[in-house]
Structures are given as structure tokens and as C-alpha cells.
Task: structure prediction
Amino acid sequence: MKLTFEHTTLGQRVLFGSGQAADLVAAEAARLGAGKAMVIASDFEMAMARTVAAGIDVALWHSGVVMHVPLETAQAARTAAEEAGVDLIVCVGGGSTTGLAKAVALTTGLPILAVPTTYAGSEATNVWGLTEASRKTTGVDDKVLPVTVVYDAELTLSLPVEMSVASGLNGMAHCIDSLWGPRADPINAAMASEGIRALSRGLPAIVAEPAGLPGREQALYGAYLSAVAFASAGSGMHHKICHVLGGTFNLPHAQTHAAVLPYVLAFNGPAAPEARARIAAAFGSDTALGGLQELRGRLDAPKALKDYGFTAADIPEAVAVALPAIPANNPRPVTAANLTALLTAALNGDDPKTLSDQFQEEPR
Ligand code: NAD
Result:
């Protein structure tokens, strides 16, 4: 078979070292010639941020982080950055904090040095998101790609097991969705496979020993790979659905991804044999869905969207908003009827295998 593809690699420095964040951030800020940093962190993350930024000149400490970056929070941060005349943004926190930094970079062009403390992976993508009037808009702009990422797994030790699992499965969703994203290619697939492998080893280790570093390091490494694959492949069906659930219904990001993923895999898997084989191999399992479900069982992963505030009455609107956004190259054609069936199963936490069996029979 001919191998033809087009792949763009995003330029970014990645520094990985447990317990080294403060030193790495200081060295990197000096290398970038920054003298007036804006540090962005949520109220909770600010204590970590103060330690991480101890060796740099900080002109502005900014919190006001809200999930999915409401436009008002972005505008407040942009104004603060401009008034303080900063020359570097250092963000220390989860995807919401990185998202706010990206919103500032989008309009100011300021470079970002990202220090992630969850497994969301936003730090390794050039994707920004903003929410206005309950509609989340995303876009792609290289200005928002952090110039450098500092990964220090010690910063993730405080992430509770439940949140670590949900966040790690958000990374897993980046990997799996990359395999059928609009720009899926063999390089993304290689990264996604290694991301699945690392996350599937790291997350159970975190559950077994939350204070242990090896599991945290594997999860962070997997999260990075997952985001690189996702940024290159683009949003597939899974991300388009979760984007609507988060932006329109305000469901929590990581838990929503964790709960929806097995249903998208059950839906697309039968129509995507190469992706299925790759996922199964990365899990070291006989089947892709079996591997994911076995892992989810060990992690006691989020199961049903109804546990996070989604209701049956929300499904028609979710279908109406998500359907037109799902890429045309999705392995299985998506209709209002089959998307309703998928969301109904995810709402109730039904066995995804039932969905898989149902769609196995559906003609293409
Ligand atoms: P989050 O950033 O909202 O963090 C969840 C909670 O965990 C917050 O209360 C936070 O303060 C806390 N927290 C963060 N680090 C912690 C730590 N080490 N210990 C204890 N608590 C900690 O959630 P998230 O899942 O990291 O990110 C979700 C957001 O990121 C969403 O808005 C999503 O759209 C965005 N995102 C964007 C991209 C992208 O490429 N643009 C990719 C992934 C996620």
C-alpha cells in the first residue's frame, strides 16, 4: 500500500524533570531574555506557582482562572498583561490555567512558558478555546503554542486520584481520537500508540500509589504525547462531542472525556480496523474496547454523563450542535439517530459493548 501523508511538527522545547521545575523555569526565562513575567495560576495553584516562579522576575501574579475560559476572564487577563507591560507568560496549573494563558497570547503575541499540573495536555497544542454566551469557540493559532513546556511530575502529586484518573483518560481520549481525526497520519498514530501505552501503565500505578513518582511521570509523558498527536490530527468525533458537552452544558472537562470515550470507541471501532488493532496492541489486549474497559475498571473511571449534570432532555440540543461539527472522514457515518443512541448510552453508563454490537450490524 502506498504511504502518502502530510505532517506538520510544531516547534516547542520540552524539559522534563521531577523536582526541577523552579530551576528549569529560571533557566528558560533567562534563555528567552524575559525580565517581566506574568504568572497565571488559579487560586489553588498559586502556591505551587510561587515556588515554581521563585527564580524569575515576576511583574504580575494573575488568578481569575475559570474552566473553558469565559471571554470576560480572558479580557481581564489581557488588560492586566498590557497594563503591566509583561514580556513572558508563565502558566502553572491545569488546562484551564493554560487556556487563560493562551487567550492572552492570542491577542498580545506574548510567549508562554507552560508548567502543567494535570494531564490535560493543552500545553502541547496550538489550540485555543473561549466561551461566550454558553458557546465554546476553539481555534488554531501557533501564537498560543507555549514556546517551552516544563514537566515536573512532583507538581502532580497533589492531584487527587479521582481527578488524576479523569485527567489521564482525557489524555487517552486525545490518543484514541487522533487515530481517526481529520489529519490522522502515521506519525500521529505512532505518538498516540506510545501515549496509550504510557497512560495505561501510569494511571494504574497512580491508583496503586498516589504519592509515587513513577506512575505520575508515565502519565505526564503520555499526556504530552497524546496532546502532540491530537494537535496534529485535529479534533475527531470524540472531541467534537465533548466540546459541546463542556461548552453548552458546562459539564466538567476531564470527567466528560473519560465517560464518553468508550462509547465513541464502541461506535467507531468496528468501522476502523487499523485504529482498533493499534489501540489493542498499545493496551496489550485482544481487543481495543476490551483493553480500554479493563483499564477503566481498574481505575474506577467516570461512567455515566448523568453523574455530571447531563440529562435526557439535553440530548436533542447536544446532537443538533455536535452533528454538523463531526468531521466528514469519521470512520462511521454519523446521523442524528446514531448520535442520539451514543449519547443516550453515555448518559446512562450502559455497557458500550451493546452499542458496539448494535453498530456492527449497521450498513455503511
Ligand atoms: P482544570 O485546569 O480546570 O483543573 C481541574 C481542577 O484541578 C482545578 O480546580 C485545579 O485548580 C485543580 N488542580 C490543577 N492542578 C492540580 C494539582 N496538581 N493538584 C491538585 N489540584 C490541581 O482541568 P483540566 O482538566 O486540567 O483542564 C480542562 C480545561 O483544559 C478545559 O477547559 C479544556 O477545554 C482545556 N483543554 C484544552 C486543550 C487544548 O488543546 N486547548 C487540551 C486539553 C484541555
